[in-house]
Amino acid sequence: MSSRYRVEYHLKSHRKDGFVDWIKGLLATPFVLHAVSHDMDDLTTTQRVRSQYAEIFDDISSLVSNKIEFDSRNGQLNESVDDNEKYELMGKSRLNQLVPTIGKFFTELPLEKAFLWEDAERGISERRMVAPSFNDVRRILNTAQIFYFTDQRRKYSRNTLKLVTFDGDVTLYEDGGNLDYTNPVISYILKLLESDIKVGIVTAAGYDEAAQYDQRLRGLIVAIHDSSVLTLEQKHSLTIMGGESNYLFRYFEGEEPDDYGFQSISHEEWFLPSMKAWEEEDMTQTLDFAEKTLRNLRERLHLPAEATIIRKKRAVGIIPGERFDPVTQRQASVKLAREQLEEVVLTLQATLESFLPARNIQFSCFDGGSDVWCDIGGKDLGLRILQNFYSPDDPIKPCETLHIGDQFAPIGSANDFKARLAGCTIWIASPAETVTNLHRLLIE
């Protein structure tokens, strides 16, 4: 009973990705047709399945290319109207018709090549009992995005990728952890900077002082400071966008040997025009209303008494808190159930969407795995800010931007999801996957 409930619960719409699920459905047909073969040495069956999978991915690549062309043509002809009106005027691309929830694509995706790579690594086409999974498709999409940029580099003998951004928790380091000197991702970040690629860490962690980020990313800033390969300009190409899009910090080095780390950048230097139009009163009322909603939910859902509501300048959230464990004789973190976290974040999102002051600004509601937050702004703004900050006269384009994060799945409750509006993305599930993808991007 519990197992069946878990399966059905995870099929709810807010936990699905329409494009990935659609691809899974397409791959199910050749899998089912050839699942009758249980002979692990049946090379002919494997070749047939691999060929059919590859053909499907090649067709999807064509649909993606068609959508990019369609959206480009649509935008050129109707730049004065919003996206919904454009589609009303010109219809929809074939991919939009097949997957109504599909977002934007900024580059073509060599999906057949990516599938063949992943198949050689994981034996997807040789499986007879387990169909291509969500994670299989997610990895193939990631690999295709990596291959696009590596193919472009070989074609033009230079990087067409100009900006790489990262989430923090579960992307660069474990949830709640720090980036210490032993973390293998550090060498790849240095390689990005050495290749004249700008690097931004766009995180929900909303500290308004640099010291907090210096502590969490100590291993990285020491490695950058000690590097004899990076120029000072390349070192300055590392930034942190905190609180989604609320605080900007840049790496700096002073005259004294120990004077280095992150330095705050004034809002006047990087606020986007749309953000300058936000009224302070609307932001305050939005956070006040979100805080009131969190208090009501804490009572209604019978959350632990230790669950604490925290108010910051540009965010409000609820964290699990701690209680004394008589067995271990230590303070232990109180766990909130997955269902409680999702009820809180989805209710908070839906409630704010109908709150007038919140509709005058941008906000993000998300669950971080153990807590729930409402932030002013969003990661799409964070990416756009960095695209403009690094190149004010000629902003970095979405097709020249890559965001790596783990919070993409639940629409309305994952803060990396909005990054898809401002750049190309890679959806990882652990810091180890981040390292693997960076290795493919920079080395292979």
TrEMBL record:
Top-rank taxon: Eukaryota
SUPFAM superfamilies on file: HAD-like
Coiled-coil regions, chain positions: none
GO MF term (any one): ATP binding
Key word Transport present: no
Keywords: ATP-binding, Hydrolase, Magnesium, Metal-binding, Nucleotide metabolism, Nucleotide-binding
Enzyme Commission (EC) number: 3.1.3.-
Key word Nucleotide-binding present: yes
Catalysed reactions, as listed in the record: IMP + H2O = inosine + phosphate
Pfam families in UniProt: ISN1 (PF06437)
EC primary class: hydrolase
GO biological process, any: nicotinic acid riboside biosynthetic process
Cofactor(s) recorded in Swiss-Prot or TrEMBL: Mg(2+)
Subunit structure: Homotetramer.
Family: Belongs to the ISN1 family.
Reported function: IMP-specific 5'-nucleotidase involved in IMP (inositol monophosphate) degradation.
Listed name of the protein: IMP-specific 5'-nucleotidase 1
The species this protein was found in: Zygotorulaspora mrakii (Zygosaccharomyces mrakii)
Species lineage: Eukaryota, Fungi, Dikarya, Ascomycota, Saccharomycotina
